[in-house]
């Protein structure tokens, strides 16, 4: 058995090897115990660079993808950030020390409640979890400096693009749910939108409407 410290060190080295080099992002990931976002037998696998089940048929993302998405988002200390797809709350917890305020939306009420509890226990008090359909953004808190979507839509949702400030950045996977998707970075400028593809990824689909549970 490797010790907790050693496992954590290897975790950070693996993130670096996969291209997560931003120091603030690596620090946030080192300071955020992924095990508390997992249940039962999956807790023991928290430091593996794989997605894992979190209930309601959803998954916690692969840590290196969380790292690459967070890095691409270039979050500033004064930024107001929207996440669509709270899931376990892990991605929101990583954003918390980097941003001023994080709003995160989840269509499964049970997941939203659980994530809220874990984030509170970790003292990530600048994160607000909202159980709502996030496919149309969060108009009451718009506009946002940064938007991250952790479920795949076929195209970047136009209401999310509309809720992004000029100078803002949105990172999201696009493509059909049963195929390889593209991780996109969208930068909103005075003149329009610039698109950059970052990687091939696989995410659960962005689904409209609240879930039954
Ligand atoms: N960011 C998460 C991983 C999320 S998996 C983490 O760190 O654990 C994607 C999540 O998006 C799922 O929990 C799914 O229920 C949610 N989701 C899908 N469509 C949604 C929508 N329209 N609004 C809000 N959440 C949505």
From TrEMBL:
<keyword id="KW-0963">Cytoplasm</keyword>
<comment type="similarity">
    <text>Belongs to the methyltransferase superfamily. L-isoaspartyl/D-aspartyl protein methyltransferase family.</text>
</comment>
<feature type="active site">
    <location>
        <position position="61"/>
    </location>
</feature>
<dbReference type="GO" id="GO:0005737">
    <property type="term" value="C:cytoplasm"/>
</dbReference>
<keyword id="KW-0949">S-adenosyl-L-methionine</keyword>
<dbReference type="GO" id="GO:0030091">
    <property type="term" value="P:protein repair"/>
</dbReference>
<keyword id="KW-0489">Methyltransferase</keyword>
<dbReference type="InterPro" id="IPR029063">
    <property type="entry name" value="SAM-dependent_MTases_sf"/>
</dbReference>
<protein>
    <recommendedName>
        <fullName>Protein-L-isoaspartate O-methyltransferase</fullName>
        <ecNumber>2.1.1.77</ecNumber>
    </recommendedName>
</protein>
<keyword id="KW-0808">Transferase</keyword>
<comment type="function">
    <text>Catalyzes the methyl esterification of L-isoaspartyl residues in peptides and proteins that result from spontaneous decomposition of normal L-aspartyl and L-asparaginyl residues. It plays a role in the repair and/or degradation of damaged proteins.</text>
</comment>
<dbReference type="GO" id="GO:0004719">
    <property type="term" value="F:protein-L-isoaspartate (D-aspartate) O-methyltransferase activity"/>
</dbReference>
<dbReference type="GO" id="GO:0032259">
    <property type="term" value="P:methylation"/>
</dbReference>
<dbReference type="Pfam" id="PF01135">
    <property type="entry name" value="PCMT"/>
</dbReference>
<dbReference type="InterPro" id="IPR000682">
    <property type="entry name" value="PCMT"/>
</dbReference>
């Amino acid at each position: 058995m490797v010790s907790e410290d050693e496992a954590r060190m290897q975790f950070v080295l693996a993130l670096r090897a996969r291209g997560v080099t931003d120091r603030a992002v690596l620090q946030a990931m080192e300071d955020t115990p992924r095990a508390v976002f997992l249940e039962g037998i999956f807790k023991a696998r928290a430091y593996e660079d794989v997605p894992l089940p979190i209930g309601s048929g959803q998954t916690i993302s692969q840590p290196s993808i969380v790292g690459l998405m967070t890095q691409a988002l270039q979050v500033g200390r004064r930024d107001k950030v929207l996440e669509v797809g709270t899931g376990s709350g892990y991605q929101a917890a990583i954003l918390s020390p980097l941003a001023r305020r994080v709003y995160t939306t989840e269509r499964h009420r049970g997941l939203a409640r659980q994530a809220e509890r874990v984030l509170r226990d970790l003292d990530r008090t600048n994160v607000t979890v909202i159980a709502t359909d996030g496919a149309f953004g969060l108009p009451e808190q718009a506009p946002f400096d940064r938007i991250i979507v952790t479920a795949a839509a076929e195209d970047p949702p136009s209401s999310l693009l509309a809720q992004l400030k000029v100078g803002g950045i949105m990172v999201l996977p696009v493509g059909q749910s049963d195929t390889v998707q593209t991780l996109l970075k969208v930068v909103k400028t005075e003149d329009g939108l610039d698109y950059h593809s970052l990687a091939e990824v696989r995410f659960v689909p962005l689904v409209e409407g609240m879930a039954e549970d």
